[in-house]
Design goal:
The complex is a heterodimer. By secondary structure, chain A is an alpha/beta fold. Chain A has a single domain (about 5-310), classed as Alpha-Beta Barrel (TIM Barrel), CATH 3.20.20. Helix content of chain A is about 50%, strand content about 10%. Chain A is built from 13 helices and eight strands. Chain A has helices spanning about 15-25, 30-40, 45-60, 70-85, 105-110, 135-145, 155-160, 165-180, 190-195, 195-210, 225-245, 260-275, 290-305, and strands spanning about 60-65, 95-100, 120, 150-155, 185, 215, 250, 285. In chain A, strands 7-6-5-4-3-2-1-8 form an eight-stranded parallel sheet. In chain A, α2 (about 30-40) crosses α11 (about 225-245), α3 (about 45-60) crosses α12 (about 260-275) and α11 packs parallel to α12. Chain A is globular and about 60 Å long. Chain A starts with 14 loop residues before the first helix and ends in a 12-residue tail after the last helix. Chain B is α/β, with parallel strands linked by helices. Chain B has two domains: about 15-260 and about 460-475, Aldehyde Dehydrogenase, Chain A, domain 1 (3-Layer(aba) Sandwich); about 265-450, 3-Layer(aba) Sandwich (Aldehyde Dehydrogenase, Chain A, domain 2). Chain B has 15 helices and 20 strands. Chain B has helices at about 60-80, 80-95, 100-110, 115-135, 165-175, 190-200, 215-225, 240-250, 275-285, 305-315, 335-350, 385, 405-410, 425-435, 470-475, and strands at about 20-25, 25, 30, 40-45, 50-55, 155, 180-185, 210, 230-235, 255-260, 265, 295-300, 355-360, 375, 395-400, 415, 420, 440-445, 460, 460-465. In chain B, β9 (about 230-235), α8 (about 240-250) and β10 (about 255-260) form a beta-alpha-beta unit. In chain B, α1 (about 60-80) packs across α7 (about 215-225). The radius of gyration of chain B is 22 Å and the shape is globular. The model of chain B has no long low-confidence stretch (mean pLDDT about 95). Classes of the chains: A alpha/beta, B alpha/beta. The interface of A and B includes residues 31, 50 and 271 of A.
């Protein structure tokens, strides 16, 4: 049974203690946060640095399909792409994981067996999370049993926004207990939490509850990962490690489509959390169309010309 | 600092700017040699490379320039405001069109990073001309009654820290109100003013409305004490400002002085800490701290002092110092060897007086003038580094216990130019801001500039306001 980091055991002793702790965190000045994110976005990443960043970004992708129309065939195609992203260049790194709904986890696991690419499954009544705890836990058990290496859960935003922080915390604890060896990513749906103060508080709830990753969003709402909310979460994991020694990963998801965007996020990682997080074990991109743009840019770097969308695979 | 993610060099191209081997003075619409034929060299502070040789103005040149400005004044001041506005709008647009070239030029001559000239200096320069262009035909509505009159010839002396921006702050309101100008840029950064002279020609500005005299302090002295100058505007050191005030005493010259500062950046324990750290960095390391309104004194509440200092040191360790033309450079070169010597000497004094020095671990280039971002802890009000303006990348950290103590310490300075307040509590911002004797008070930000906002100081930081509607008054006979 995972427990709260000892340094903060008092913080989660009761609903009021947790509220006091969360409201004692430093506030976030929205203008300043966005200005800092924008300023890091002006870094100019060229030549060797760009080549490094592109390969790193590819290796950090959770290649994702979360559609009602998903089929075993679609999932197998995605798995093949994750293992071998660019059929014309075998030096291209693999993606970190393939991310699917729980009923597709077994298909993904079979297709990825032995490849080193992880199976990530969303769970807990993703994306809304509006189901009874029993149902959410069953969803997690199902995904783990089907071979998921990683579980992407959603928090109860309703509970969070109505101030029931301990409920959010305890639900994460319960999900973590069902994960076994699987790593747990906790999705806050930052677009629904709305304020940066809320995102900082949610990050701390997730970290206190034993999340292996904190993740911005489901990709199913209007505002998903942004440089500013990801910067804020990187500050949270940086501070958490400084205080507890425990390192936690970060996963921005949704809306990151271009190499330029991905490189900006890697700059945020590099200059906020630091190079310890420049590793697929600690940073991920939840994305689908991003991969092809990275591949086109990679081909451009190696050949000196743009190849075009017909030279990368459509899945 | 070897990192896995090593940013490859990303230099901005120098080819966008064509620097001539020599330049003359710009008088009455023409480039001309100095009467005495003297010249001086301007070097790039990041490499000590000689960029160009420019004419060195003397008293005779000042006289010629003032006469040209006087002659031009009659027609220029008689133009309808809407006509003067057209010239200013045209200048603003040309600045925007040539902003890449001017940014590279300014970075070469001044040593500041291209990131700053590109994203701060040049956009502000253009904005300033656009803003005052808008006022030119609306002076009747500026609050000084109908048809306020210009003063005449303005003698303007500007510093080297924001060469083109300070030129814009001086020239835009002067021209909008119908004055003509003779401007002397600093001897270490003459080039952007000379390029501006070219822009005036490109804009078809009538001859003599703007005159640029490159030179040293003697030329500045001759300019401000010239009997036919009606208005003196100076930005620079407090020592020179005092000398100017003495020289114009007893004359009918109107004077504005924008002098030194020792800005207090006050961080309360309920501040947004991560953003406050960014604000501290912007406050004192923007333009290598060579900013009159720099937040050079950090006043941090004792209960968060350790947390803030740890975060600040961590952040300073990520600053990238080096080639100012590299787009990823955060900290450029110090403007001159004289300034570097002054910073070095004040830092030595700080150490000798027992303050504890910490400098960011960065490698300094072998040529050029460089100083690593530095902070002093264990500083009290009695330390020289807490009182004297260093004008370099050096932060003095002091602590306080209560808001009253913060206000008392912030105001306990011979200067009164800028201050910053960091707190999430709105009522505290208002209460503290009202008690601070500083011309500019920033809340939860620092070193933010806008042409609509007046700027100026209390006490030894000078008098008069530049920018905004207030900035018109300095150039009107009201």
């Amino acid at each position: 049974m995972p427990t709260t980091a000892p340094a903060f055991s008092d913080a989660t002793a009761s609903d009021s203690a947790l509220r006091r702790f969360l409201f004692g965190l430093p506030g976030v000045d929205a203008v300043g946060l966005e200005a800092r994110a924008a300023s890091l976005g002006t870094r100019s990443i060229k030549t060797t640095a760009k080549a490094y960043a592109i390969d790193l970004a590819i290796s950090m992708i959770d290649l994702t399909t979360l559609e009602g129309a998903d089929t075993p065939g679609k999932v197998r195609a995605l798995a093949a792409k994750a293992v071998n992203p660019d059929p014309t260049d075998r030096t291209t790194p693999r993606t970190a994981a393939v991310c699917v709904y729980p009923d597709m986890a077994a298909t993904a696991a079979a297709a990825l067996a032995g490849s080193g690419v992880k199976v990530a499954s969303v769970a807990t009544a993703f994306p809304a999370g509006r189901a009874a705890l029993d149902v959410k836990l069953a969803d997690v058990r199902d995904a783990v049993a089907a071979g998921a290496d990683e579980i992407d859960m959603v928090i109860d935003r309703g509970a969070f926004l109505s101030g029931r922080f301990l409920k959010v915390y305890e639900e994460i604890l319960a999900v973590k207990a069902e994960c076994g060896a699987a790593r747990l990513k906790v999705i806050f749906e930052t677009g629904e939490l709305s304020t940066y103060d809320n995102i900082r508080r949610a990050s701390w709830i997730g970290m206190l509850a034993g999340a292996d990753f904190i993740k911005t969003s489901t990709g199913k709402v209007a505002t998903n990962a942004t440089p500013a909310n990801t910067l804020l979460m990187l500050e949270a994991v940086r501070d958490f490690r400084a205080q507890t020694g425990v390192q936690i990963g970060v996963k921005p998801a949704g809306g990151i489509r271009t190499t330029k965007d991905a490189v900006k996020f890697l700059v945020l990682v590099n200059e906020t959390a630091g190079e310890d997080w420049l590793d697929p074990h600690w940073f991920r991109f939840g994305a689908s169309s991003l991969l092809n743009d990275l591949l086109m840019q990679r081909q451009k770097l190696s050949t000196g010309r743009y190849s075009g969308p017909d030279y990368v695979t459509v899945d | 600092m070897a990192s896995a993610f090593e940013y490859a060099p990303a230099p901005e191209s120098r080819s966008v700017v064509d620097i001539a081997p020599s330049y003359g003075l710009f008088i009455d619409g023409e480039f001309t040699e100095a009467a005495e034929g003297k010249v001086f060299k301007t070097v790039s502070p990041s490499s000590e490379e000689v960029l160009s040789e420019v004419a060195r103005a003397g008293a005779a040149d000042v006289d010629r320039a003032v006469k040209a400005a006087r002659k031009a004044f009659e027609k220029w001041s008689a133009l309808p405001g809407s006509e003067r506005a057209k010239y200013l709008f045209r200048i603003a647009r040309i600045i925007q069109e040539r902003s890449r070239e001017l940014a590279v030029l300014e970075t070469l001559d001044n040593g500041k990073p291209i990131k700053e000239t590109r994203d701060a200096d040049l956009p502000l320069v253009a904005a300033h001309f656009f803003y005052y262009a808008g006022w030119a035909d609306k002076l009747d509505h500026a609050g000084y009654g109908a048809n306020p009159r210009p003063l005449g010839v303005a003698g303007q002396v500007i510093p080297w820290n924001f060469p083109l921006l300070m030129l814009a702050w001086k020239i835009a309101p002067a021209l909008a109100t119908g004055n003509t100008v003779v401007l002397k840029p600093a001897e270490t950064t003459p080039l952007s003013a000379l390029f501006f002279a070219d822009i005036c020609r490109q804009a078809g500005l009538p001859k003599g409305v703007v005159n640029i005299l490159t030179g040293y302090g003697d030329a500045g002295e001759a300019l401000v004490s010239h009997p036919d100058v009606d208005k003196v505007a100076f930005t620079g050191s407090t020592a020179v400002g005092k000398a100017i005030a003495r020289s114009v005493a007893g004359t009918d010259k109107k004077v504005t002085l924008e002098l030194g500062g020792k800005g207090a950046n006050i961080v309360f324990d309920d501040a947004p800490i991560d953003q406050a750290v960014e604000g501290i960095v912007t406050g004192i390391f923007f333009n290598q701290g060579q900013v009159c309104c720099a937040g050079s004194r950090l006043l941090v509440q004792e209960s968060v002092q350790d947390e803030v200092l740890d975060a600040l040191k961590r952040r300073l360790s990520t600053l990238r110092l080096g080639d100012p033309l590299d787009k990823n450079t955060d900290i450029g070169a110090i403007n001159s060897s004289e300034q570097l010597a002054r910073i070095t000497s004040l830092v030595e004094t700080g150490e000798a007086e027992g303050a504890e020095r910490w400098s960011a671990p960065c490698e300094l280039p072998s040529s050029g003038y460089w100083f690593a971002p530095t902070l002093f802890t264990n500083v009290t009000q009695a330390h020289t580094v807490a009182r004297d303006e260093i004008f370099g990348p050096v932060l003095s950290v002091l602590s306080f216990r209560t808001p009253d103590e913060a206000v008392a310490k912030a105001n306990n300075s011979q200067y009164g130019l800028s201050a910053g307040i960091w707190t999430e509590k709105g009522s505290r911002i208002l209460a503290v801001a009202n008690k601070l004797r500083a011309g500019v008070v920033w809340a939860n930000t620092f070193n933010k500039f806008d042409p609509t906002s007046p700027f100026g100081g209390y006490k030894e930081s000078g008098y008069g306001r530049e920018g905004g509607r207030h900035g018109l008054e300095a150039y009107l006979d009201v």
